[in-house]
């Protein structure tokens, strides 16, 4: 199956873009269209045939890193999207998508950025729409799930290890918090010596 996705990279200062594009082709990125509109960056739009979205995207990243070892991934897409982007993926107007979001505030996926310009991870929104009968392009959800994982892992590299467990506990969804609290008494009872339990 062919998977469509984009990988944006930051290049080292002074790198010759034509040389970079040539090296990418030699490394196997002949299925990518390069975009060089921003100085010091290169956007690669891939159409890659692979058994899975995971294999398509990870192999593409590996090819780029082999060709340009010091290239730094900025973002994998499609992942971080606004209402206009979401609407285009399901062939509706932005106004219709906004109305759908506002009328389903209770269960529409939460954005990762609020305010005037709201941003979502694409995968959970597509899953929500699919469950309500919207037509989704084959392979798109798998790509969106994988690009989300790539971006999350990239950001996790900046996470302070000493804060990780505390932040995970603080940010856990309510359901997980309840399950944790319900299991705590049983866990504490299991820690009591058997002799004490017998008394």
Q: How is the main sheet built?
A: 4 strands, antiparallel
> How many helical elements?
9
Strand % is 15-25%
The overall pLDDT average reads 89
Question: What is Rg?
Answer: 22 Å
Major sheet: order of its strands?
A: 2-3-1-4
Task: Give a structural overview.
It is built from 9 helices and 6 strands; from the N terminus they run βαββαββααβααααα. It has 199 residues and is an alpha+beta fold. The strands form 2 sheets. A 4-stranded antiparallel sheet has the order 2-3-1-4. Strands 5-6 form a two-stranded antiparallel sheet. Strand 2 (32-35) and strand 3 (41-49) form a beta hairpin. It is globular, with a radius of gyration of 22 Å. The N and C termini lie far apart (65 Å).
Please tag this protein with its features:
199 residues; 52% helix; two-stranded antiparallel ribbon; alpha+beta; globular; 9 helices; disordered C terminus
Chart the SSEs and their pairings.
Layout: E1 2-10, H1 17-26, E2 32-35, E3 41-49, H2 53-67, E4 72-77, E5 80-81, H3 83-89, H4 94-103, E6 120-121, H5 122-131, H6 140-156, H7 161-171, H8 174-191, H9 194-198
Antiparallel strand pairs: 1-3, 1-4, 2-3, 5-6
Helix pairs in contact: 1-2, 3-4, 5-6
Quick overview:
This protein is an alpha+beta fold. It contains nine helices and six strands, in the order βαββαββααβααααα. The strands form two sheets. It has a four-stranded antiparallel β-sheet with strand order 2-3-1-4. It has a two-stranded antiparallel ribbon with strand order 5-6.
């Amino acid at each position: 199956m062919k998977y469509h996705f984009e990988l944006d990279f930051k290049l080292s200062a002074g790198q010759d873009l034509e040389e970079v594009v040539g090296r990418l082709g030699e490394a196997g990125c002949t299925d990518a269209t390069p975009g060089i509109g921003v100085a010091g960056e290169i956007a690669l739009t891939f159409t890659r045939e692979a058994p899975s979205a995971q294999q398509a995207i990870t192999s593409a990243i590996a090819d780029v890193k082999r060709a340009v070892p010091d290239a730094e991934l900025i973002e994998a897409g499609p992942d971080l999207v606004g209402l206009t982007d979401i609407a285009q993926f399901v062939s509706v107007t932005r106004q219709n998508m906004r109305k759908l979001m506002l009328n389903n505030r209770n269960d529409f996926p939460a954005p990762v950025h609020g305010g005037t310009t709201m941003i979502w991870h694409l995968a959970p929104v597509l899953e929500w729409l699919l469950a309500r009968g919207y037509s989704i392009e084959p392979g798109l959800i798998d790509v969106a799930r994988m690009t989300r994982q790539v971006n999350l892992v990239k950001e996790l590299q900046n996470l302070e290890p000493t804060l990780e467990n505390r932040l995970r506990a603080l940010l856990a969804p309510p359901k997980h918090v309840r399950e944790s609290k319900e299991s705590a008494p049983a866990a504490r009872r299991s820690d009591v010596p058997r002799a004490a339990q017998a008394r």
